[in-house]
C-alpha cells in the first residue's frame, strides 16, 4: 500500500482512504495536500490560501474522512461551497474517496432541488453534508438542530461566498454548530472580510499558502465537446469516424466502463481492448505490446491502469470521463505529443462539468476550444476517404494481375465490369452505410450535435448522471411568438400537465389557445407561453401555488 500511494501513506491517513486513492491512481500529494493534511488530522484550525486546481478538495476531504466515524449515523462534517456546481463537485470527491468506507454517506444540499429528500438524507444519518449557505439556512429554519452534531467545518472558496452575499447566512450557520468544532477555511485571497471571519470563528488557525503554478502542454492540440452523460458512447463512435488517428487511448473512471466501451468499439469493428486494475500484469503487457505493434489501435483505460504507459504510436487521447483534477488531465494527455511529436486530446464535458473545464484551462494556461459532433455528411466523407485510401495502392497493378479474372467473371456472371465492381465494393464494405440517407438513418444525430452545445439550465435540479436521461431530453422547437418558461415543480412533486394548465389559466387570465406545449419532467416542467407581455404575465403568476407549492415560473433560456 505504501508503495502504491507514495507520500500519502506517510501522512497518517486511514488505510481505507489510502485504498481509495490507489483505485483512482493518486500517487503523490500536491503541495497543499502535503501541508494541510497533517494540520487537519491534528485537529488544529487552519486557513488555506490556494487556488482551485491545486488539489485543495482532497486536502480537506482526505483528513476529514479519516477522522469521521461511519458507525455514528449523524452529521459530523459540514463543507460549505459558494455554488451548486462546486457543492456537487466536492460531494462527488467525498464519495470517491470514501468508497472503501462502508456506511459512510454524503448528501449535497443546494437550491433548485426539492428540500424533502435532502432533509431526509440528513435525518437518516449522512455523516458528510456539502451545502450552499442559502439552502442550508432554509433547512435550519425547518430544523434548528440539523448541525448540532457537526465536529468539522470547511469553508471552501470563502472569498467567493462573501462576493455572493452569504455573510449573514454564514453567521446563522456558525451559531447553529457546536463551538468545539474544528474549522478550516480555504480562500484564493484573504481580504479584510475573510480575516474578520477567521478572527471571530477560528481558534488560533495555522496559515498555509500555496502558489498556483501553471502547467503547459503546448505540443498537444486540445479540444472539448459538450455532451450529456448518456450520449457518451454514441459521441465516441461518431468522433472516431472522422478523427484520423494512428493509435488512441481513451480514459474512463471505472473498471466496468473500460469493459463496456471497449466492447462497444469492438462491435463496430475497431481493434480495441480494455486496461484496468483487474487485468493481470502479463495480460497488461500483451495489451501494450499489441498497441505498439498495431494489432490494437485503441485502448480504454483507467488512470491507475495507464500508469507508466508510453507508446509512440499514440496520436490521440480521448477523455471520455472528466478527470478528477487538472493534474490528472495533464498526465492523461501527456500520453501523446511526446519527444517533440504532435498529438490531439479530446475531452467530453457534461453540463455539470463546465466548472472543471474552466479550472483545467486556468491550470494549463491554455484554451481548450470547443468542437461540434460530426454531422452525417462529415461521417460519410470520412468513410469514403478511408475507402479511397485503402483501395488506391491496389489499383496500380490490379489490372495486370487480375484483369483476366475480371473478364472471365463478367462473362460467367453476365454482368458489366461496373456491376461487378459495385458488388465487390458491397462485399468489401460489409454493408457499411455509404450514402447520406443511410448514414442519417443508421446514426441519428445525438442531441446537441450540429447545434449549440447543451446548456445547463439556470434553475435546473442538478442530479447525478446515474439517474438517467429523462432530465436531459432536448426541448422541442418553439412555435413563433411563444416563449418557453420553467418551473422547478415536476412529476416527483405529484404535478401533472393539467395542474399547471389550470393554475396558469386561473391566475394568468389566459385562454387555452394562449398556452402551448406543457412538458412535465421528473424534477421540473416546461410551459410555452405568449412572448408578448410575458414579463407582465410572470408578474401576475408570481405568488401562484400548485399542489401547495410555489410555481415560481420564469423564462427558460436555452442559449
Characteristics of this structure?
Nucleotide-bd_a/b_plait_sf; seven-stranded parallel sheet; 559 residues; alpha/beta; disordered N terminus; ATP binding; Rossmann fold; globular
How are the secondary structure elements laid out?
Layout: H1 2-5, H2 15-24, H3 31-41, E1 46-49, H4 56-67, E2 77-80, H5 84-97, E3 106-109, H6 115-123, E4 128-131, H7 133-142, E5 152-155, H8 158-163, H9 167-175, E6 182-187, H10 192-201, E7 206-209, E8 220-226, H11 232-242, E9 247-251, H12 255-267, E10 272-275, H13 281-293, E11 298-301, E12 314-319, H14 326-333, E13 343-349, H15 354-364, E14 369-370, H16 376-395, H17 398-413, H18 417-428, H19 436-442, E15 482-487, H20 497-508, E16 518-520, E17 525-530, H21 534-540, E18 545-546, E19 549-550, E20 554-555
Parallel strand pairs: 1-6, 1-7, 2-4, 2-5, 3-4, 5-6, 8-13, 8-14, 9-11, 9-12, 10-11, 12-13
Antiparallel strand pairs: 15-17, 15-20, 16-17, 18-19
Helix pairs in contact: 3-4, 4-5, 7-9, 14-15
Catalytic activity: ATP + H2O = ADP + phosphate + H(+)
Enzyme class: hydrolase
Family: Belongs to the DEAD box helicase family. DeaD/CsdA subfamily.
Uncertain runs are 1-5, 444-474
CATH topology of the largest domain: Rossmann fold
The geometry reads as globular
Counting DSSP E segments of at least 2 residues, the number of strands comes to 20
Q: Termini distance?
A: 48 Å
Sheet having the most strands: 7 strands, parallel
Major β-sheet strand ordering: 3-4-2-5-6-1-7
**Total separate domains:** 4
Rounded Rg? 28 Å
Question: Could you tell me the mean pLDDT?
Answer: 83
User: At the first level of CATH, what is the class of the largest domain?
Assistant: Alpha Beta
Structural class: alpha/beta
| DSSP helix fraction | 40-55%
The CATH architecture term of the largest domain is 3-Layer(aba) Sandwich
CATH H-level superfamily of the largest domain: P-loop containing nucleotide triphosphate hydrolases
Number of helices: 21
